[in-house]
Amino acid sequence: SPHQFIYFQAGGFDASLLSFLQIDRHGSVNVSKLSARPHVTAGAGGFVDITSRAKKIVFSGFFNAGARLSLADSGIRIDQEGKVKKVVEEVEHISFSGKRAVAQGQDITYVTERCVMKLTPDGLMVTELAPGIDLERDVLAQADIPLGIANDLKV
């Protein structure tokens, strides 16, 4: 409904939960174009309206596309690494600007099956690890960018 977009554009809500295709070093998000999997994307829709005014945004998605995971007693196990990296140097298309979010003071969180990251003025910072995930092997080595590590990293 058109009235819903007026509500979004006026900032009438506090938080939003959305997905991502790619995240880059600035915390920018791509939801509308992924050349490695063109059949997956269908455009941004109302994504820009929602993200431009939300005070808090939680993005969720897989760290790498195509990974095979299982659950063990110790937590998540990555049986086969995904072939398509989603934490990249530059997103293919900026659907959400991390730089703009920092400038506006938005509270931005990224949740994956491996970790939770926060957007800071210096880029992405890992704040929490999922049980069974190795920080070096499963997160830092799989990101195409350097990630900060919180001093109070939750494991």
Keywords:
alpha/beta, 37% strand, 17% helix, 155 residues, Glutaconate Coenzyme A-transferase, three-stranded mixed β-sheet, 4 helices, six-stranded mixed β-sheet, globular
Short précis:
The protein is of the alpha/beta class and 155 residues long.
Report how far apart the termini are: 42 Å
Helix content: 10-25%
Radius of gyration: 16 Å
Helix-strand string: HEEEHEEEEEEHEEEHE
Strand element count: 13
Overall mean pLDDT stands at 89
What is the CATH level 1 assignment? Alpha Beta
For this structure, the CATH topology is Glutaconate Coenzyme A-transferase
> Strand content of the residues, in percent?
35-45%
Reconstruct the topology from this structure.
Layout: H1 2-9, E1 15-19, E2 22-24, E3 29-30, H2 47-53, E4 56-60, E5 64-65, E6 68-72, E7 75-80, E8 84-85, E9 87-88, H3 98-104, E10 107-111, E11 115-120, E12 123-129, H4 135-139, E13 148-154
Parallel strand pairs: 1-4, 2-9, 4-10, 12-13
Antiparallel strand pairs: 2-3, 5-8, 6-7, 10-11, 11-12
